[in-house]
Amino acid sequence: MFKTGKTLAALTAGLLALSACGSGGSTSSPKELKLWHYEGPDSAMGVAWNQAIKEFEQTHPGVKVKFEEKGFEQIQKTAPMVLNSKDAPDILEYNKGNATTGLLAKQGLLTDISAEVTKRGWDKQLSPNIAETAKYDAKGVMGGDKWYGVPNYAEYLQVFYNKKLFDKYGVKVPTTFEEFTAAMDAFAKKGVTPMANGGAEYPAQQYLYQLALSKADRPWVDRFERYTGKVDFHDPAWTYAATTFADWVKKGYIAKSSVSTKAEDAGTSFISGKYPMFFSGSWWYGRFEKEIKTFDWDTFLWPGTKMTLGSSGNLWVVPKGSGNKQLAYDFIAITMKKDIQNLLANNGGVPVAADPNGVTDPKNKKLIENYQTLVSNDGLGFYPDWPAPGYYDVLVAGTQKLMNGTAAPNQVLDSFAKPYEENLSTIGH
Amino acid sequence: MSSVTVRRRTPGAYALLVSLIVLALVMLLPFVIIAVNAFKTPAEYSAHGPLSLPKGLYLQGLKDFWQRVDFGGKLVNSVIISGSVAVLAVILSVLNAYALGIGRIRGRVSIMVVLLLANTMPQEVLVYPLYFVSKKVGLYDTRISVIIIFTAIQSAFGTYLLSSVLSSFPREILEAARMDGAGRLRILWRIVVPISRPTLGVLFVLFFIWTWNEFFLPLIFLISNENQTVPVALGVLQGQRLMDATMTSSSALLGIIPAIVFFLIFQRTLTRGITVGSAN
Amino acid sequence: MTQTLSAPPRTATRKPIVRRRDGISYAVYLVPSGVLFVGIILVPFLMNIGFSLTTWDGIGKPRWIGLQNYTKLFSDGDFWASFEHNIALVIAMAIIPAAIGLVLAAALFDVIGKRFGPRTASILRACIYLPQVLPFAVAGIVWAWMLAPDNGALNETLKKIGLGSLREDWLGDPKIALYTVMGVMIWVQIGFPLIVFMAGLQRVDPSLYEAAEIDGASWWRRFWYITIPQIRPELYVVLLICTVAAIKTFDKIYILTKGGPGGATRVPAYLSWQNFFEKTQVGYGAAIATVLTLITVVLTVVFLRRQDRLERADA
Lengths: 429, 280, 315
Known about the structure:
The structure holds 3 protein chains of 3 kinds.
Chain A: H1 3-20, E1 32-37, H2 44-59, E2 64-69, H3 72-83, E3 91-94, H4 98-106, H5 114-120, H6 122-125, H7 128-131, E4 135-136, E5 146-147, E6 150-151, E7 153-162, H8 163-168, H9 177-189, H10 202-213, H11 218-226, H12 236-251, H13 263-271, E8 277-281, H14 285-291, E9 297-300, E10 310-312, E11 315-317, H15 325-335, H16 338-346, E12 350-351, H17 362-376, H18 391-404, H19 409-426
Parallel strand pairs in A: 1-2, 1-3
Antiparallel strand pairs in A: 3-11, 4-5, 6-11, 7-8, 7-9, 7-10, 7-12
Helix pairs in contact in A: 2-15, 2-16, 10-12, 10-18, 12-19, 18-19
Chain B: H1 3-6, H2 11-38, H3 42-48, H4 60-69, H5 71-102, H6 108-115, H7 117-120, H8 124-136, H9 143-166, H10 171-179, H11 184-195, H12 197-213, H13 216-221, H14 230-234, H15 245-271, H16 276-279
Helix pairs in contact in B: 2-15, 4-5, 5-9, 5-12, 9-12, 12-15
Chain C: H1 2-6, H2 20-26, H3 31-51, E1 54-55, E2 63-64, H4 68-74, H5 77-81, H6 83-116, H7 118-129, H8 136-147, H9 153-160, H10 177-189, H11 191-201, H12 206-214, H13 219-230, H14 232-248, H15 251-256, H16 269-277, H17 282-314
Antiparallel strand pairs in C: 1-2
């Protein structure tokens, strides 16, 4: 009868001994650069950064890069805690925006790298539109005066379209907004829902925000995203966006049944050839290239607008407690070099400083050209969920109500205004 | 009516069996769908949707993922953490329940309410206080910190279940043992523990599997990749805007196999109880 | 016969043998856990109450603001309105699983185990328990596939068997989404009461069932007069623990619906989480967590008191 007890005791002792060993804190020695990011190894960034690590080790003999791939959620949830401990890495990828990099900067957990940015000339490589999300003020609001990170890539939204379906239904690829709605109408009349959408996640709010952006200008975006002035959620842009979005659902341009579907569903249904169009981000590009095999596809920018959703990609940030800041800057410098930037481009990413001549694939070239068109127009309008933490959920709920018709556009806009104002009152506390 | 006739397999019994089998299959349906997607190529999944059958067995993704996150190491971590928690929490539950259920000490309801705080309060409450404490004592980013935390949390449930069960424990047996001169510890070890074996078995299994699947606190307290558990490692497949559905399926299947094996091995202890009668 | 059934023999005569002196020394057994609990549960809980009186973003020094977080919470209509959904979740995560689990446990133990062998019963139990082993992050993806409105498995099956008119947008229709979530929760939850109850049934003296069978008591009577009274302790535990879990839960729902469509499945526990980790308003999150804890503690006190009274009445 005592046998179970002894086994249990032995088991505990053994397991505890095991768990004790090998868990010592990993202090970063000068000969080791501790680097974290959360991009998959096959993604454009993953490939480019992997190469950058190799180059770094070649140019820094004796220094080893200790790279750990993290989960996105783990970094999101734990970054402030990790950076406030001795387990902080020397350099890591982190999300741009007020609620993320801005917050860490405000909390004093990130290094102000402004001097390094000017010294190494990164400010000249990055267009002002892109730099905005790398600079923060003392309250942690983007577009500030101090650099806290450096982006290697950009992202923006465009319409991905299925050429085969356009041919099959005899629809012309639109170049103006009128042609765009006419095209959607033509598909809808033939019983085909023209636009893929995911109502439970970001796609729906991106349609909505794009509609608003098409009636907006730069100061409008600055007011909304950077609190430079009062935001009126019942102004013509927002009102147009909410009513048009609801109208498009009613007309069948966007399926009502997409109210509960996720971004992943929207993407895969486009890949499977179900929808002629999907308005979404350049983050899909590599996957579409790899996985769409049964039809030709191409892209066009949202017609009839100067501004569209987009921004810099995530940032390289250097924690305050980094023991190897110079090495971290050296690494960033390598990622900004032409060859790494071109590698990023050739793997389907949107580099911030590539040489278009170094990009071979015509589709990749177009991806970068569209981006350059936007940047030269000062056309990156950021994302609608940025202004307030938790705003994503507010926008999801609002667009779902518009789709289900359970609330009028005016009511939905009211529901956007309340948490926005609430957040405004907490900024700078 | 003799007991032999009662245990015949009547049509009613067969009907019950069939309906339970149907229920079991319904419960398993999601697992089938996961298995179907586990062996597809990502392109197949994207092109034909999650409900189509795979054309072949695609294992390359799984192999790559195994190496990418050092899955073997994660399995070892998960086994160490879940195993330690299960053993320690069962021991603590027995000790507590002995005092509360058999001893019926005064204030037992209040003590139970306090212990059950581990269940009643939301887990996020623990994050900041335990972060500061673990940093102070040098246990931040160690597996031991997670073992200690979950031992406390799980043993609260164990104490409650076991002391509820033990409060209906037949007093005559305790009295008889005491007449024979058995001390309190001896009574616990030789009478109470053996008789509660099925319940202890259930606790052991539940603790192991619950700890195995814990995601949130390990995410916070296991920062280094070398300390991470299986569910935290699966997190790398869920990106900011994209996810990897086929790999998530296959790695999830892989990740639950140890837990299922564990359950199948230990579920025998759930049925092999010593009844009060036979212990007499 | 009814006499034997309603009063299990071993509870017939019982004198309290525990004296006061024993009560004190039994407390020694609580010491190891006591130390652990103070450190891991009690101190953090008290610290959390402290945080709830401040405004704090998790780093640096919290700033004292008194009861402001609480006054803000009490006037937060969305928070209190979403408690309605918790009633549905208590039904789906505690009451229905406990009821089904009880019937299943009795059926597996008393009928299947005895007539088709314990192995058959074990296999069936394992299958029904399996959803508890699967991380819900993965299960949620699969359920979304099955419940998808356009080509989900459920709607496709309904169409194939000629019930196409019953097709719904299961997670997208605000009138249905909560019921769908309830259904998925039942799927997740059933295994837990089942294995706890089945283990409890092992304690039951087989002679009770034999006596009842010989007397020709129906299955239903045996269930009602033997099974339920015998595993009453387990029944209490499952009901309380699952109810508390249902009030605290949000992660599974958020994986399925993100609280949508349009807030139709929003639950209050999410608000605490969101303030802790998304809005990094730890003070307000702590206040919400404290209120949620108080609600569940009150429930626990009421429940445990009642359970203790009944236990003493039994003894």
